[in-house]
């Protein structure tokens, strides 16, 4: 476990040199203790004071074990550190903020939580106010996350602003609060399969993570409302496992790569609101899914082996608001659901009930269906188009809610984002174009003022990203890249420049250029991104000199 020098120095100062050097093993054990404090000064000082007269290595090892197993029982944590941290919790303005904060403790230590995933779970749980549109619900979720960050109860994730995380000591406090207030019960993965039947029956919300989980106990959980089972080696469910779970609202089975099928008795989950099967090896949905009349959110992302959805399933889900069958990776044609157009027909039949659709399309007929359905267009949030060898253009004019666009292995020549002179690309944040050998014109990305991530890979014909007719003033006046944070350019043999002249990149953090031998210049100078730019990666061999 990484320990900063400053954290160790603070701990050593507070514990005292005489104790720190009283035994050859104590400096090493002290590093482990500091590691368990995760750099939180309050915890470092509290534990150091408690250890300032302890000179036995066995006593130090006991402290390490307690901090790992149950930190609230260690002297000073439960009656000093947690109560002080609780001040921020108690000052949250309403119960919804408190409940959403405690809910974050369902995620394990050091976990980067995607904000969209978290908000989906909150919607499924019914934490957010009734809403007339999914946009209202997501805005409320963003507001709650922002409030928790301002209270220092959540922090930004390591990857991007799309993620958040909870400091480990804050999470320990949240678990302590959840246990005391009986709002959320979290089962650590190391103990989950050893639970008694009575303990399973009493659980309210249960989170099981990790490769140590191979099976689930064969016992009913009639009061269970939340079941998160993620990143396990679970292959099948016990017989009739779901039959007694009528209270279940949220079922998240994502990232269980060994899970290949779902039992038919899932149709008994009549109160289920959110079902996440993303990144599993499930090949088909049981037809009994159609009985989930209260299901609002169905997530099927990244399911590389998924190939069958029974007919009339989606048209039967009359409460469905969010549907996602999305992947950013190239999927072989024979592994894609053969009835994509039928799926779109059923989603369209839901009318104004469906708010948000994320989908991967691999046929020109499915793309044609979306292009000529205003209802479907208006719901698209994330879209991946691949293998569209029969279509040379895509029409995105009515996709006013589009946030992510991936174009993979297509013969597309152009993209049309405007309608009667008006652009609908204001919500586009992520754009990736890969293996598109004939695409030449990307000037349309100037119609996406909020673009944050741009990735262009193996586009043989692309010579200039923003064509400005040789006028640097035109490019500068449009502020095309005001919010762009990441640029990734790879295997673009014809690329000569991004645009003409220099432009302002006030948000740019990272630039990566690989295998672009004719790229002679980048469109910024010292002042263009001086307040934000973190790194530029490339080499003389891959970037033109």
Written overview of the protein:
The protein is an alpha/beta fold and 545 residues long. Among the domains are: 5-69, Helicase, Ruva Protein, domain 3, CATH 1.10.8; 82-181, Orthogonal Bundle (Arc Repressor Mutant, subunit A), CATH 1.10.10.10; 392-545. The protein has helices at 5-15, 17-20, 26-37, 41-50, 57-69, 77-90, 95-103, 115-125, 134-150, 168-181, 197-202, 340-349, 364-371, 374-379, 472-478; strands at residues 113-114, 155-156, 163-165, 205-209, 226-230, 250-252, 274-276, 297-299, 322-325, 356-361, 380-386, 393-395, 404-408, 414-416, 418-419, 422-423, 430-434, 453-457, 486-490, 510-514, 535-537. The chain has a 14-stranded parallel sheet with strand order 4-5-6-7-8-9-10-11-13-17-18-19-20-21, with helices on both faces. Helix 1 runs parallel beside helix 4 (41-50). The two termini are 42 Å apart. 41% of the residues are buried.
Task: Provide tags for this entry.
545 residues, alpha/beta, Helicase, Ruva Protein, domain 3, Arc Repressor Mutant, subunit A, 3-stranded antiparallel beta sheet, 28% helix, Disease resistance protein
Q: How is the secondary structure organized here?
A:
Elements: H1 5-15, H2 17-20, H3 26-37, H4 41-50, H5 57-69, H6 77-90, H7 95-103, E1 113-114, H8 115-125, H9 134-150, E2 155-156, E3 163-165, H10 168-181, H11 197-202, E4 205-209, E5 226-230, E6 250-252, E7 274-276, E8 297-299, E9 322-325, H12 340-349, E10 356-361, H13 364-371, H14 374-379, E11 380-386, E12 393-395, E13 404-408, E14 414-416, E15 418-419, E16 422-423, E17 430-434, E18 453-457, H15 472-478, E19 486-490, E20 510-514, E21 535-537
Parallel strand pairs: 4-5, 5-6, 6-7, 7-8, 8-9, 9-10, 10-11, 11-13, 12-14, 13-17, 17-18, 18-19, 19-20, 20-21
Antiparallel strand pairs: 1-3, 2-3, 15-16
Helix pairs in contact: 1-4, 3-5, 6-10, 8-9, 12-13
């Amino acid at each position: 476990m990484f320990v900063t020098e400053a954290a160790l120095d603070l701990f050593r100062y507070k514990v005292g040199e005489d104790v720190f050097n009283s035994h050859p093993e104590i400096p090493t054990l002290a590093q482990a203790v500091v590691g368990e404090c995760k750099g939180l000064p309050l915890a470092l000082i509290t534990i150091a004071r408690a250890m300032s007269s302890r000179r036995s290595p066995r006593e130090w090892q006991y402290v390490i074990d307690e901090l790992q197993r149950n930190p609230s029982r260690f002297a000073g944590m439960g009656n000093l550190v947690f109560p002080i941290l609780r001040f921020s919790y108690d000052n949250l303005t309403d119960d919804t903020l408190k409940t959403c904060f405690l809910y974050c403790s369902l995620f394990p230590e050091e976990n980067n939580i995607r904000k969209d995933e978290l908000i989906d779970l909150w919607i499924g749980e019914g934490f957010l106010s009734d809403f007339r549109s999914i946009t209202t619900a997501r805005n409320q979720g963003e507001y709650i996350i922002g409030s928790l960050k301002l209270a220092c109860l959540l922090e930004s994730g390591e990857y991007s602003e799309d993620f958040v995380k909870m400091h480990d000591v804050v999470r320990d406090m949240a678990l302590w609060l959840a246990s005391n207030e009986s709002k959320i019960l979290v089962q650590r993965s190391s103990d989950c399969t050893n639970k008694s039947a009575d303990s399973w029956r009493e659980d309210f919300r249960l989170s099981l993570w990790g490769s140590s989980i191979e099976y689930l106990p064969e016992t009913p959980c009639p009061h269970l409302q939340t079941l998160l089972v993620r990143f396990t080696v679970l292959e099948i469910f016990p017989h009739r496992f779901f039959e007694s779970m009528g209270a279940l609202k949220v079922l998240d089975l994502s990232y269980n790569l060994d899970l290949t099928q779902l039992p038919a008795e899932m149709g008994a989950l009549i109160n289920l609101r959110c079902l996440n099967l993303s990144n599993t090896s499930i090949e088909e949905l049981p037809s009994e899914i159609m009985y989930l009349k209260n299901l609002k959110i169905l997530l099927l992302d990244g399911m590389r082996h998924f190939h069958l959805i029974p007919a009339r399933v989606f048209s039967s889900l009359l409460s469905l608001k969010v549907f996602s069958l999305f992947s950013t990776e190239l999927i072989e044609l024979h592994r894609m659901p053969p009835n994509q157009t039928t799926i779109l027909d059923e989603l369209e039949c839901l009318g104004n009930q469906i708010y948000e659709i994320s989908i991967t399309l691999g046929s020109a007929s499915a793309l044609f269906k979306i292009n000529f359905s205003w209802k479907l267009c208006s719901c698209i949030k994330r879209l991946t188009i691949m293998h569209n060898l029969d279509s040379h253009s895509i029409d995105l004019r009515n996709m006013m809610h589009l946030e992510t666009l991936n174009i993979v292995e297509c013969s597309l020549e152009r993209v049309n984002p405007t309608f009667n002179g008006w652009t609908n690309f204001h919500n586009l944040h992520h754009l990736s174009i890969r293996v598109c050998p004939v695409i030449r014109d990307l000037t349309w990305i100037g119609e996406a003022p909020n673009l944050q991530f741009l990735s262009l890979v193996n586009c043989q014909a692309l010579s200039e990203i923003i064509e400005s007719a040789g006028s640097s003033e035109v490019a500068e006046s449009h502020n095309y890249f005001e919010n762009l944070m990441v640029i990734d350019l790879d295997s673009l043999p014809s690329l000569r420049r991004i645009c003409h002249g220099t432009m302002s990149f006030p948000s740019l953090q990272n630039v990566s250029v690989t295998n672009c031998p004719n790229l002679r210049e980048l469109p910024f100078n010292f002042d263009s991104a001086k307040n934000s730019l973190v790194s530029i990666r490339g080499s003389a061999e891959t970037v033109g000199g």
